[in-house]
Amino acid sequence: MFKNTISNLTRIRQVAEVLIRYGFEDVVTSTALRRLVPQSRRRSWQEGEQAVFETTRWQRIRMIIEELGPTFIKLAQALSNRADLLPQPLIDEFEKLQSNVPPFPVAQARRIIEQELGRPLEEVFSEFEEVPLGSASIGQVHGARLLTGEKVVVKVQRPDVQEKVRTDLSLLHELVRLTAPFLRRQGLSNPQDIVDAFERSMTKELDYTSEARSMEQFRKLYEDYDSFYIPQPYRELSTNRILVIEFVSGCKITDKPQLLEWGLSPEKVAETGMDIYLTQIFEFGAFHADPHPGNVLVRPDGTLVLIDFGMVGRLSKQQKYAFAGVFIGMARQDARSMALNFRRLALTSEIPDMRAFEADLSQLIEDFALLDVKEMSMSDLADALQNIIYRYKLQVPGSVFLILRALVILEGIGKVLHPRFNTFEFVRPYGARIIGEQYSRENIQNEALYTGTQLLALLQTLPSDVRQIMRKISRGDLRVRVELSGYQLLMRKADQLVSRGILAAVAVAVIVFAGLSLLGQYPATMPFYRGLPVVTWYSLGLAAFLLLILFILGTKNERRRE
Questions:
Q1: What is the pTM (predicted TM-score) of this model?
Q2: What confidence tens digit (pLDDT) does each residue in 2-14 have?
Q3: What does the domain layout of the chain look like in residue ranges?
Q4: Does position 147 have pLDDT exceeding 90, yes or no?
């Protein structure tokens, strides 16, 4: 830990100074970061540039993220899908972040491809486009053609991205360690868990073979669909740093003039797109999590194509049923059913006041039940649901927020193409289908079989477990471990008080000894100074030293409280 702190010291100091520049001096002065900013460079946020402080606190957080670079931008983009962790105004700001990164030289891209494949570029591609088709913080995409004639796109990872991401992840862990108490006081109860989850996500994103596997999975799921197509990945030409994918031509799904020119119905295209996406969620439980217009193409024959499978969400069968139950409960205007399904959906279902929770859901139902179908908006509903999740600190699967975000994006696409597009009209039949699947004979049999298997396993191990417990009781070896949580701060304070009490008692004892030393009878060899024996001066000096330590400890504690 100490080694990481030293290696990241310069970058951490830069982060602290950026925080101060944008008016977050309290984050620095309230945490261990204050030790990293020299006194000469400390200044009050009230003396900053006026233009910065005319913005909101949420906007300034976004400015800080933008200045700190791509890894921090990616973390903020990931958090923009987590309404259970962050307030909606901050999520709105994070959704504005764009990681616009200039491309790296094509010579480096060629060198990386040759290193990964272990052979010259000309032995794999007959053509390789010098100008990249797109560029991002992790890598960039080049057009190419295989020696066998197939046109492909090649995703190439940046040459130094893995080292940069590792450095920034180490920095994030260090920042969380230094600021964890402050973040908890702001309502972020598990900052370390967030960084750990982000680290897993980034590690997966840095491995292009994971994206290739997702594409192959979706190709298998939709192999019988004529209206939907996923490009083929070339696994034999792909590694964790490069990914070769079949090139698919088409226009963006929102390019309405082009759709009309091809003789396609934009309304039909929008309906097909929504049906395909809802099938992913409610039937397969695996879905493309970033369906923005640039990732959804339409071929001249009307076939929809999804590209870029770097972000894929998944729901278990039980999560799928609970998520559908939330919408079904809302359609039936049943707040209790919504609350029950929210609890089933949550990873931890500790809701302190269920009555208040149901009342808030009832209010949400009333707000939307009175609206005309044309007035209903998936964006408004998603915001309302996310506000309730945040208010009650429900820890729901991250995939839920990816779904809500994707439905909002798809609704925006649908309204461009379809003047009467309404997301709820598409969701309703899928909800009914899910209810039928949940209570089907096959599912009930599977659930009964699972429960029976678990019960049988319990019955098989119960006798031996009970026998082992009884043996320990008879030998007097049974120990009960009681762990108290939430008392760490109190115990630390008590330890500090005891230590200072002992120090103060020693100081008082030394002072008393110094007073008593004045009454002693000393031999002629005992040196005196200003009429007092030297032993008295030594005692007073030791007492003064102990009192100085007590004063320093008290001042340090006071500064921490401030």
A1: 0.64
A2: 445 455 666 677 7
A3: 101-247, 313-439, 487-559
A4: yes
